[in-house]
């Protein structure tokens, strides 16, 4: 094996070693995070949820139920407030990301609809309503008069065979032939 192949193998082995070391570090970090979350959860529960002691008499039990209901209501209000704060924060995030998009010059194009518009209306939309532009396309066309040539006159005198076929074709032609036969 050549020295180049040995270098490649060494680089690949080093890359594999670094990858496995990074994965091992990531696994230990995830385990540490999970343990920290569990400890935080236990502390929160110990602080906010004292151990339950069931009283013996009916009166004390009713008092306990009332306290629990009050606690549930306060927690529900707190949850609602947190949800509202989260919604506001999400909305602010969306607005800021939209502003960022606009500043970069990249934005989502809205779906466009086809609109039928005359040339006049299009020019009015482009130039504004102040400018009165009449766009008559036929006004700028040249008028060309067809001059009769002698060839065409001869053809007309002889009669065009296409014209004769057109007269006899279709229902009109059949009707004429039928009437002529009677």
UniProtKB/TrEMBL annotation:
GO terms for cellular component: troponin complex. Residues 27-106 form a coiled coil. Keywords: Acetylation, Actin-binding, Coiled coil, Muscle protein. SUPFAM superfamilies: Troponin coil-coiled subunits (SSF90250). The keyword Hydrolase does not apply. Transmembrane segments: none annotated. The keyword Nucleotide-binding does not apply. It comes from the Eukaryota. One of its GO terms (biological process) is skeletal muscle contraction. Belongs to the troponin I family. Binds to actin and tropomyosin. Troponin I is the inhibitory subunit of troponin, the thin filament regulatory complex which confers calcium-sensitivity to striated muscle actomyosin ATPase activity. This is Troponin I, fast skeletal muscle. It comes from Psilopogon haemacephalus (coppersmith barbet). The gene is Tnni2.
């Amino acid at each position: 094996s050549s020295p180049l192949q040995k270098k490649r193998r060494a680089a690949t082995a080093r890359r594999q070693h670094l990858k496995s070391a990074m994965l091992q570090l990531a696994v230990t970090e995830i385990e540490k995070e999970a343990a920290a979350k569990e400890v935080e959860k236990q502390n929160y529960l110990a602080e906010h949820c004292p151990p339950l002691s069931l009283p013996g008499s009916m009166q004390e039990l009713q008092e306990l139920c009332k306290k629990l209901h009050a606690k549930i209501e306060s927690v529900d209000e707190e949850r609602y407030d947190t949800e509202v704060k989260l919604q506001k924060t999400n909305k602010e995030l969306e607005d800021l990301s939209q502003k960022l998009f606009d500043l970069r010059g990249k934005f989502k194009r809205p779906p466009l609809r086809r609109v039928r518009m005359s040339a006049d209306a299009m020019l009015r939309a482009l130039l504004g309503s102040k400018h009165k532009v009449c766009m008559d396309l036929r006004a700028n066309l040249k008028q060309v008069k067809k001059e009769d040539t002698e060839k065409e006159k001869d053809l007309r005198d002889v009669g065009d065979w296409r014209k004769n076929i057109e007269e006899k074709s279709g229902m009109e032609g059949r009707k004429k032939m039928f009437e002529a036969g009677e």
